[in-house]
Design a protein that fits this description.
This protein has 150 residues and is mainly α. It folds into two domains: 1-30; 31-139, Four Helix Bundle (Hemerythrin (Met), subunit A). It contains five helices and no strands. It has helices at residues 3-27, 33-43, 48-84, 90-120, 124-139.
């Protein structure tokens, strides 16, 4: 085998491994839900009743959030497959891009409403502080995993 072909194959394998590792790390949640709630309890001085209410909101919203991430990941895979195809189906690509934009907007709006519902359980000052901390993170959300407010 020619050295160039070996080098090209090695580069391809390394790129595939790097991509896979990056995706795996991006999709793994950095902390447990209990860690997140404990952080919120301390950071925003939550009472026991506020903590219970926020935990219920989180439990109710978590499946919705995970479904949003799943649909966005599926659409990313579809876009990647279309990009790699020869010849490229430009109509399918445009449709997948439109769907991606729609899914991201749905996710953003639902998560914003969830964060506002969480903030509404806190004292007014702490709720404003919570939103000031979390809403900017929402704007930069990668949609690879649930938003971590910390």
């Amino acid at each position: 085998m020619k050295p160039f072909v070996r080098l090209a194959l090695l580069a391809l394998v390394v790129a595939a491994l790097a991509y896979g590792l990056t995706r795996w790390l991006a999709c793994s949640h950095t902390g447990s839900d209990a860690d997140e709630l404990a952080w919120m309890k301390t950071e925003f001085h939550l009472t026991p009743s506020q903590t219970v209410a926020i935990e219920k909101l989180h439990d109710d919203y978590n499946p919705v959030c995970l479904e949003h991430c799943h649909l966005i990941r599926e659409t990313r895979v579809r876009l990647t497959a279309i990009e790699a195809a020869t010849p490229r189906d430009f109509a399918a690509y445009a449709a997948a891009q439109t769907e991606m934009t729609r899914l991201k907007a749905v996710c953003h709006d639902a998560t914003k409403k969830h964060l506002e519902a969480v903030a509404a359980q806190m004292s007014p000052d702490e709720g404003r502080r919570f939103l000031a901390l979390t809403l900017p993170k929402l704007a930069g959300q990668s949609h690879d995993a649930p938003l971590d407010p910390r």
